[in-house]
Amino acid sequence: MDEGDYTPRVDGGGESNDSDDSDHTPWERPASQAHEDPERTSESTLDDSLDDSVDGADPDPTDDTDPTDPAEDPDPAEDTGSNPTDDVDSEATSLGKGGRDRSSPDVDFDGVVLDNDDDNQGLFDDLLSGEPIFENKEVLRPSYTPHELPHRNDQINRMATILVSALRGETPSNILIYGKTGTGKTASAKFVSQELESTSQKYDVPCEVEYINCEVTDTQYRVLAQLANTFIEKNQAVIADRLEQYESMRADARDDVVDEGAILAGTEFDTLAELDDRIDELEADAEEMEEVPMTGWPTDRVYTTFFDAVDYHERVVVIMLDEIDKLVEKSGDDTLYNLSRMNSELDNSRISIMGISNDLKFTDFLDPRVKSSLGEEEIVFPPYDANQLRDILQHRADIAFKGDALTDDVIPLCAAFAAQEHGDARRALDLLRTAGELAERSQAEIVAEKHVRQAQDKIELDRVVEVVRTLPTQSKIVLFAVILLEKNGVHNINTGEVFNIYKRLCEEIDADVLTQRRVTDLISELDMLGIVNAVVVSKGRYGRTKEMGLSVPVEETEAVLLSDSRLGDIENAQPFVQARFDN
Ligand SMILES: Nc1ncnc2c1ncn2[C@@H]1O[C@H](COP(=O)(O)OP(=O)(O)OP(=O)(O)O)[C@@H](O)[C@H]1O
Ligand SMILES: [Mg+2]
Q1: Where is this region: Disordered (predicted)?
Q2: Does residue 384 have a known ligand-binding role?
């Protein structure tokens, strides 16, 4: 294939057409977004932490199954184990309860198992016996793709109107989709892509959609390699199909089943020699298509491989780049530049890009040409209001929960809480699922308002824990100073007080001491993250100072800070802080 004189922009190894382009402004994540990611991380680990915090904070009173209690030992075989203490304990217990003497030589093991089933509940029996609240919990998880997306008709229709040209063999305009987190961008894009592919199969038109999550696939090399390998695989399947068809024609001819003219009638071949050539050609093509390794090739070779693979036959390809801002943040706009220029070089195929982002600021860092090409069409996903969230939750709840498992106020309350959080459907669904799980753990029959409130507290705490855990060490020390002051009953803490304690703490753990001005900046950052609440107060002729208080629970935050190995030793610093206030 002839690529003309176009050379792709690559991030290593290859040459660039345009030397200016390789000099990119590094894309910086705005501070306001810094706390969004941890929130999402904590969502994914919600289940694990749920176990911990629920079990730890509120041991389930109805759960009387104690795995450490030998009387409840679900596995009698363990009593024959080598640990003599265990043997004595369990023997005593079973004898005390009128059980058989297990030391007897003719112990009937099967009998023991049956007895055990009758008398005692196994570890899981209690948990299983409760009438479950959920019918299908998976439906509330982020991985579930709903078949219906209420309140996204406008956006879905706009996407469809633009992408329908792909089904007509034309190149759809590139689309940029943006909206805050949890507004249904990914769910809608996946829905549209499924519809597009199924329609293209129905009408047998060569239209394909490739979805890439750029949070995972975040370099030009990886994006191009993933695309190249996908198309190589598809091409191999097409080649295998054709070869099968041609080889059976060839076999028919060899066996003289039908004469040559009849075999070739209606095909692109006039003679059997042409058919043979085509078979050889396809075999050579299949041989030549080499998969791209996950690392190691120069980027321009990966690009050429992708180019050849996608152009192997006629088709329109829609490339969906979800979380496109992550790709630009990590590796600049080379990938987008190369992809958006490909159509002028491709002979058989056409590509169209659909970028999805929850942060529009990333376009500021794009080459103006890339920016205008990518944003040919823009679709905005506005936040949901409480009523819309109610509908979304109701649709899911109908499938997720048993009938009558929710009191009437559960869904409106989840919707109201999530609407306060910039109309985030993910948050609303998380609340509903967590509320259901909390109700289930406490063996309640139905999910009630109190479970939603507990779920809200739990999710909020998870978020705080995650934000605090990922703070830089210096910010952690500053925060710890605030906590110590607050624990010692100081209210309206001012910057000077924080700085004094901070200095002592740094000396304790041998950390660099920053200037008071820097510490004030760190306090402002903690304020932006919602960890402290700082206000500037005027002290008349003494100037102005910042006064602050903690906006997060003291105990939990302190525990997270102390779990950092560098700060772990600080615990011993308590006396000197106390001493300061005694004077
Ligand atoms: N209109 C809707 N109907 C049903 N479920 C929805 C709707 N909108 C969003 N959801 C659900 O809410 C959750 C979050 O949606 P989605 O992942 O699409 O958000 P997003 O806009 O891509 O967010 P982010 O920017 O964080 O990636 C998913 O579980 C999704 O199924
Ligand atoms: Mg998304």
Answers
A1: 1-117
A2: yes
